[in-house]
Amino acid sequence: MYIPFNKSDISEIELDLVKKTLLKEKLEGGRSNSSEACIKYLKENFLIQDCLLTTSCTSALELSALVLKLNPGDEVILPSYTFVSSANAFVLRGCKPVFVDIRKEDLNLNLDLVEQAITKKTKALVVIHYGGISCDMKKAKNICKKYNLALIEDAAQAVGSKYKDLFLGSIGDMGAYSFHGTKNITCGEGGAILINKKKYLNKAQIHYEKGTNRLAFSLGKVSKYNWRDIGSSHILSNFSASLLLGQLRREKVINETRMNIWNDYNDFFSSNKSLITKYRICSVPTYATKHNGHLFFLIFNNKKMTNNFIKKMREEGCEVSKHYVPLHNSPFGKKVGRVSSSMKVTENAGDCLVRLPLWPGVEAKKIMLASSKIINKL
Ligand SMILES: Cc1ncc(COP(=O)(O)O)c(C=O)c1O
């Protein structure tokens, strides 16, 4: 058997849309047909006020930091158990990342530890919805209101997931999606910045268009465009957007299929009494009313068990994978960041978390069988 860790779900619908774009449409992005159709889909289906398609979630996060006009020395609070871009976007503006531990239950930021990390220099809170499962957004919003902080949702993994009846990414001041090849909905490399406050839209559009007001020009609002501020090239090509459009149109089916696999894993790994003493799994909070089955993890009791499990699963032909290396312990994280609490849960996740393959069509039964045989012997 060989089961890859990840595989995108691309259908004839996407192939037809890409072909049509290649033969009949402009290839550049901005206000092109497929890009506009993707934005319409995102706004209507995820109830997002405004958004811009970007070349990645990284670029969307960088835009959010630009829009907030952060200055060198400003502090931004975030988890350490995340992708490097969640921190880098702010470090690029000269900010100091302040790392806070995560919750044992779902590996999302431990919001009970955030207030003690706030100083006079704190300007923003960045939450990550790990595995597409929502943070406690009410708690996050209340903290931001009390201390006048901007709230950014790194919803890289959370397209289609909800907090109560709100879609993730649409709740904070700004949000960021990823459409990278490893995500549920993909166009290879891509993302979106979700702008939930009117006052940020114009600024975001200018940074997005290399620091010019070209978007206003293409909308016919000004007769010429010129250089207004700093900016860079963040625009997703129309070619990539046509692939994304097909994926978005199939988003409900893709996410539902993944959720069915996630539920199978969850039932299996939570009910097997002889196995459950060796690991723990995610406990989904009630406010995370809908999630997208982005990933399924086991956290083993110790490093030895974890590494043995990975080795044996790979020998069986099944690609399982660890996840983040905590940022606070990385060479650059140590240099530019500050740790504000014990990092016990973060470090444990870094050492002992293993993700199972999860994609539409994956042979989950084979994976569960192989896992249970190996875990029994650990
Ligand atoms: C939480 C988080 N934020 C940001 C990113 C960056 O996404 P992209 O590759 O689209 O830049 C990732 C990538 O996996 C991620 O997991």
**Overall pLDDT metric:** 97
Structural class: alpha/beta
CATH superfamily caption of the largest domain: Type I PLP-dependent aspartate aminotransferase-like (Major domain)
Cα separation of the termini: 21 Å
Tally of strands: 13
Low-confidence residue ranges: none
Bound small molecules, deduplicated: pyridoxal-5'-phosphate
- Summed up, the helix count is 13
Q: How many whole angstroms does the radius of gyration measure? A: 21 Å
What is the makeup of the main sheet?
8 strands, mixed
Strand order of the largest sheet: 1-9-8-5-4-2-3-12
- Which CATH C-level class of the largest domain is it? Alpha Beta
* Broad shape: globular
Can you tell me about this structure?
The protein is α/β, with parallel strands linked by helices and 378 residues long. The protein folds into two domains: 12-249, Type I PLP-dependent aspartate aminotransferase-like (Major domain) (Aspartate Aminotransferase, domain 2); 251-377, Aspartate Aminotransferase, domain 1 (Alpha-Beta Complex). It has 13 helices and 13 strands. The chain has helices at 12-24, 33-46, 57-67, 84-91, 137-147, 198-208, 214-218, 238-249, 251-271, 303-315, 331-336, 344-352, 364-377, and strands spanning 50-54, 75-79, 96-100, 122-128, 150-154, 162-163, 166-167, 174-178, 191-195, 279-280, 296-300, 338-339, 353-356. It has an eight-stranded mixed sheet with strand order 1-9-8-5-4-2-3-12, with helices on both faces. Strands 10-11-13 form a three-stranded antiparallel sheet. Helix 3 (57-67) packs parallel to helix 4 (84-91). The longest helix has 21 residues, at 251-271. The radius of gyration is 21 Å and the shape is globular. The structure holds pyridoxal-5'-phosphate. Pyridoxal-5'-phosphate is lined by residues 56-58, 82-83, 85-86, 128, 154, 156-157, 178, 180, 191.
